[in-house]
Design goal:
This protein has about 625 residues and is α/β, with parallel strands linked by helices. The chain has 26 helices and 21 strands.
Length: about 625
Amino acid sequence: MDDASLLAILGKYWGYDSFRPLQLDIIRSVLAGHDTLGLMPTGGGKSITFQVPGLSFETGVTIVVTPLISLMKDQVDNLRRRHIKAVYFHSGMTAKETRLSWESLVNDRARFLYVSPERLKNERFLLELRRIEIKLIVVDEAHCISQWGYDFRPAYLNIKVLRRLKPDIPVLALTATATPKVAEDIAARLEFRNGNVFRKSFARDNISYLVRKADTKINDIFHILSRTTGTSIVYVRSRKRCREIAEYLTSCGISATYYHAGLDHALKEERQNAWQADAVRVMVATNAFGMGIDKPDVRVVIHFDMPPSLEEYYQEAGRAGRDGLPSFAVLLVAKSDQGVMRRRVTEAFPPRDIIKKTYERVCIFLHVSIGEGFEKLSEFDIDTFCVNFNLQQKQCRNSLRLLSQAGYLNFIEDYDSRSRVKIICTREELYNIRDLSPEADLVLSTLLRMYTGLFIDYVYVSENEIARASGIDSRRIYEALLELSRHKVASYIPHSGIPLMFFPTAREETSAMLIPKSVYEERREIMSQRVEKMLDYAYNSSGCRVKRMLAYFGEENASDCGKCDVCRDNRRKKAPPASPAGDAESVARFLRSCPSGATAPIIGLRCSLDAPRLSRALSFLCNEGFAEFRDNIYYPL
């Protein structure tokens, strides 16, 4: 397919008139049948590189392997909103949901198939897959397949089975963060043949990476946000701290809310939508927030707690400034953080006897006997589990993570089953329904007006949206939907936010369990090395921070960025004394170029002035009547 046809697909479904850098190169490589590795920074538009070629094929399906159920759902929902047919399979699906998805596939009602890597262990699934015409295999978050990757998932090794099932189909592997060693390992594990590697520089020239030493971090957050404008994210590693910081900022007059995996779907969606619509300025969140979120105008990303690796820091900080405008990534560090980071390594690897004991207790909790439980899927309330067995939740979660990597369990915490409805009567029967309450009748007509495809498949619905459209409160909407189910008009599956536990194998005797060295000792050493690299970035001020971070990702010849705190400090030390009038001239020129005004940080960044010189220049302009300061913004006069 020629470039013009590919651009036509891009314009038809996404409304863009050109590709971003590297996208077209990757698409051409895939369509030429080459195995391809795309290394693109956060916000680089990775999904376009497989969705456009997937739509260019006249027949067949593009299969996408991705690790997060929540991300899988978001991508499928986004495709469906663009009227692109897509389905998914993961270990948290019921038998009925699985059957309906297969019907869509075999009846040629899907162009994209999203699967979790765990699904590729299922022999029945692989047998059914032989019936499907597959044109492209995509491995998203491909660093998960590498033992050197920061988020190694043993289940990703199952992809080689898919590769051998469809040996002539090209593979596209995508990731936003990969060191040279990880990139090499990805290609080896996916058995690349005549592979192409496309690497976009990890440099983000519009972002100023700053490290700020802080004894009272919460005050520093307020200080930063009160001196900048625009949408912001504050990352923390504690759900409790999410709420506390959001409440503190709100009490200080800064619009803020919080987000973490423990909130129910409706609340998460409501808060995410408010933040994306600029109704809320600051999102205080754990790392559960941000994946798949493409808000281009985030001006500031602040890390209250230090991430465990440079890969994760780069991904999260990279959510700033996707529109290319000046933005800030600020890491707050305290003296105590070094000890905290190193303790995390110890905490992440509980003693082996604790891990085995956790497995035994999970089996007891879910009533799984020895030799039973193969492919068993159960709701797993981890809070109740920890209370019942008097366990520390942090230690329990780390034990479950290691059990998952060892192949004994799969704890699915990102599963959030949204409410679904399917009309199960015929259109003719719909007109002859009797004995419905007025509220149920109104809810039915609202459903038919708001959602399409209800007669074909289950459709995700929002009780809150139906309530707003019908004027009935959410609780009564729930009761009305249950009434429609009782009358066999609709099948209603209410929302459930309880995590799931999946058993990929039957329960084993605790004495026979093996936690391999590759899962325990080797992963602990890799985590320790990453922590030390992160600490070096944060506490070592001997050279440009960005240059050192780029070297970590294999860009050895990068120049000093000129914008990080180290570069700014070095420039200030070397610069000769400057007169306020001389600096004021450059500031005045910039202010005149943006008549809507600007904040001090933006002015300093554009005019290459440190804080003391900028302060003197702005004071000079205001005193001489060339500028005015209102509502934390400087305006030209």
